[in-house]
Amino acid sequence: MILLTRRATFSASHYYWNPAWSEERNREVFGRCANRNGHGHNYTLEVTVTGAIDGVSGFVVDLKWLKDLIEEQVLSVYDHRHLNHEVPEFAKLIPTTENIAVSVWKRLEAPVAAAGGAKLSRVRVYETPDIFADYSGETD
Amino acid sequence: MILLTRRATFSASHYYWNPAWSEERNREVFGRCANRNGHGHNYTLEVTVTGAIDGVSGFVVDLKWLKDLIEEQVLSVYDHRHLNHEVPEFAKLIPTTENIAVSVWKRLEAPVAAAGGAKLSRVRVYETPDIFADYSGETD
Amino acid sequence: MILLTRRATFSASHYYWNPAWSEERNREVFGRCANRNGHGHNYTLEVTVTGAIDGVSGFVVDLKWLKDLIEEQVLSVYDHRHLNHEVPEFAKLIPTTENIAVSVWKRLEAPVAAAGGAKLSRVRVYETPDIFADYSGETD
Amino acid sequence: MILLTRRATFSASHYYWNPAWSEERNREVFGRCANRNGHGHNYTLEVTVTGAIDGVSGFVVDLKWLKDLIEEQVLSVYDHRHLNHEVPEFAKLIPTTENIAVSVWKRLEAPVAAAGGAKLSRVRVYETPDIFADYSGETD
Amino acid sequence: MILLTRRATFSASHYYWNPAWSEERNREVFGRCANRNGHGHNYTLEVTVTGAIDGVSGFVVDLKWLKDLIEEQVLSVYDHRHLNHEVPEFAKLIPTTENIAVSVWKRLEAPVAAAGGAKLSRVRVYETPDIFADYSGETD
Amino acid sequence: MILLTRRATFSASHYYWNPAWSEERNREVFGRCANRNGHGHNYTLEVTVTGAIDGVSGFVVDLKWLKDLIEEQVLSVYDHRHLNHEVPEFAKLIPTTENIAVSVWKRLEAPVAAAGGAKLSRVRVYETPDIFADYSGETD
């Protein structure tokens, strides 16, 4: 059992807001994060795959391919964007660290599986160096 | 399965000493750590909880609540303290990184469970950037 | 000559846009940063003061006082805010890393001097771990 | 269940090359890593052991012993070396991050077990801060 | 006086060897670094420029331009290379951290000046997180 | 003008206390740092020297020699010690970050000068990643 991880970063804006709640309730639950002008973070993403080491190349997966996949599936959509306003899955889903981890998983799981040989094992998202969420899929 | 982690730091003194041993034996086993004047570290703590993501807030737990809980249960007792002399659990227990991880777990497990919705999943304690211990409870 | 530095962090949104230019020109000069929905960063701030070490306290300045000053003068205004929309100095000034460094300097120079005993020596602002600006005042 | 981890670093050269392939094929699969003059990295190694905490010492293992073991079994062989040319296991095995993790595991598993009381739990190898592999043994 | 810095990384091999000396003398002076198979590092480079902040763009220099310049003048020549064998300036010059800092300065000084508006202020090279050299030009 | 820096770490205890003051006054000025049981830190030290690059070796100074000098002059005295009780210069001098920086300078200035070829340029001491002091000598 070998795990291979590639880290990537993106910078984005977000805010936390539940439209079914009053402004007062939003401020109470979300504090400073409820500021609808948005604030932002340098997010760090760790994408972990697992599989057998190919005996010829010594690779679980080609890290250049994994980098390009993360770029194509995640960074090109999230980086330098306002998550609430510009990323489809956050139109109604609050972009908390937890929800971002699940959303990145959903964007990567099928393309990793489709490439054959390895599967997605874990997605970690750091909102700041002090806060991070890990998601490993539903049946893990 | 989602994990959410919050990092915190505290600065404390400690030393390693077994009163049932001679000074010579203490020096042999604990080396420089046996200096009874104490020495200290900037400890880094990672507290990980697990649970379902609340569909309304997008939270596993409220990170502000978790921060306050760590402050109240751990930092207010450990930070800027001499662990051997001022923290009850280390009156007789040697404050190694391993024992600190277990002790932080014991301080946080019940209050996290009592809040409902999530449970403590892992406590990691870094004594230095190069040494850390992870504890996940007895039956994990 | 002793320098004493305190680090702080804030999370904010911003974008780069010159209203005198066409959208095309803005995109050409500012690239992805011209996205008017904004994007964001975890900024790290280093505030350096210089002065004599007080013979009694061993302090150049009281670091608790410096922390509170940074909180009051900078973080309370910048943190969890959209710099372009909510911070007065960036209403017309593009919030580049360079301009943020100068603006933090302007916010801190007089209160540090007013406290007596030390003066502001340098402000460093990291937009990401890979990009930072230093400002040391006009006559330094 | 407690895990105890010690970090260590080594600086080494390597390249990726499959002698059964043409130069063209090597360049295609391995890109810049196929440069046979070699290039290098500051590798970071995390060695994790698991076992019971000794009630007398408070140790899972003596970290000084673990440090010396890593030095003797791994660093003395890998550090300041060209992995392909000077480390036996990479004479025919391509020194990818994945293969290095497995090789470090093989060097440490038996001596950790032989010492009694703890067993090797995981080896993590960082090639850069952005790329790392974890290996936990065949049956883990 | 504003300074703007961009960080970049490259991975390279090197060794220390003075052909005018005996092997014994080389080992004595250069220790493990005298291994002629080479070893390697993840080097981190900080390139600092200074100039006035442009009133329209808010830039000292365009960081995208600076990134491309570092890529073109330094990384394309140093990254994934054996410094002694493949980089012209190190054919006869020992690639110590100090000499790398001076060499990077020489590669960047003229193109930064030629672009107008800013000049190179400092080059810092980290060989490891614990060793770095700063060069600021001859007349600084 | 080239600067060469070596980083080192030590772990020590300390407290802040002025015996000429009442306990109340000590608590008021020094806060939690006035706890006389002591607390501790992982200090990081950066020692910077300056000089010409030797044309034969490519060195400003031999970094192995500098490492040994820091070990002999500073770490062997400070590491795993209680600064107030065991380090002579802090018998009466409060071991603030500022005073530690000056004390390390005093310990290293003469031996660096005595070795010839380079002189001490700066000492930086980090008490935590967020607090550091720089000292460059009296006439710098």
Q: Strand sequence of the main sheet of chain A, in spatial order?
A: 3-1-2-4-5
Biggest chain contact: A-C, 22 and 22 residues
- Dominant shape of chain A: elongated
* CATH architecture title of chain A: 2-Layer Sandwich
Head-to-tail CA distance between termini of chain A: 15 Å
In short:
The first copy, chain A, has 140 residues and is of the alpha+beta class.
Question: How does this structure look, described?
Answer:
- Six copies of one chain form a homohexamer.
- The first copy, chain A, has a single domain, classed as 6-pyruvoyl tetrahydropterin synthase/QueD (Tetrahydropterin Synthase, Chain A).
- The model of chain A has no long low-confidence stretch (mean pLDDT 96).
- Chain A has helices at 23-30, 63-78, 83-86, 97-115, and strands at residues 2-14, 39-51, 81-82, 118-128, 131-135.
- Chain A contains four helices and five strands, in the order βαβαβααββ.
- In chain A, α2 (63-78) crosses α4 (97-115).
- In chain A, a hairpin with a 2-residue loop joins β4 (118-128) and β5 (131-135).
- With 140 residues, chain A is an alpha+beta fold.
- In chain A, strands 3-1-2-4-5 form a five-stranded mixed beta sheet.
- In chain A, 34% of the residues lie in helices and 31% in strands.
- The longest helix of chain A has 19 residues, at 97-115.
- Chains in contact: A-B, A-C, A-D, B-D, B-F, C-E, C-F, D-E, E-F.
- The E-F interface holds E 16, 18, 20, 29-31, 93-99, 101-102, 129-138, 140 and F 1-8, 53, 56-60, 62-64.
- β5 of chain E pairs antiparallel with β1 (2-14) of chain F, so a sheet runs across the interface.
